[in-house]
Design brief:
The chain is of the alpha+beta class. It is 27% helix and 30% strand. The protein is built from 5 helices and 9 strands, in the order ααβαββββββααββ.
Length: 177
């Protein structure tokens, strides 16, 4: 299954989910619901500092487990997210967040802010044209991780070693022994 749909822009513009999420709407931190408000505030701030958080769009109930790092950041263990992805300094009492992701085959960027005391705020998604073009280019070049290996295993001319040490063609018929 491909990572992206063929016409991402059209899907983004016409799909009801994208229409709802592209409007700035109320969001909440959805992690650690069983903890006290003070513990949740600490957990949220710590999670943001390491570059992740669970955020829910209140009106639709859509939940995201977001990662606040630029595209292509594979191993972010031990890294702090860049300031343009997690910004505690822009306005006192709030954190401003940004996270790129592929949602239902469409490249988007989630952006929003959260009040550090109430753990509520506003957020939305935007179509990411630059990333969409990049992903489309990779897809058109046939880049699909692991796909070449799968195709080589399905190849009908693949050989294996027979019991006598000679190479023999794979027989696709079921064997009854």
């Amino acid at each position: 299954m491909p990572r992206i749909v063929n016409d991402q822009r059209h899907t983004y513009d016409t799909n009801e989910l994208f229409r709802r999420l592209s409007r700035e709407t109320e969001i909440k931190y959805s992690g650690y619901q069983d903890r006290t408000p003070e513990e949740r505030q600490i957990q949220f701030q710590n999670a943001c500092r390491v570059g992740r958080a669970d955020i829910a769009f209140v009106s639709s109930g859509t939940n995201f487990s977001l990662r606040f790092f630029p595209w292509g950041t594979e191993n972010y263990q031990g890294m702090s997210p860049p300031k343009d992805f997690v910004n505690f300094d822009r306005e006192p009492g709030k954190v401003f967040l940004r996270a790129p992701l592929i949602l239902n085959g469409v490249c988007v960027t989630w952006k929003g802010w959260v009040n550090l005391r109430r753990l509520e705020g506003m957020g939305s998604i935007d179509y990411d044209e630059e990333r969409a073009q990049y992903e489309a280019a990779h897809q058109s070049m046939g880049y699909q991780p692991g796909m070449n290996k799968i195709m080589s295993m399905k190849s009908p001319t693949r050989k294996h070693s027979g019991t006598d040490g000679q190479n023999a063609e794979l027989d696709k018929r079921p064997r009854l022994h």
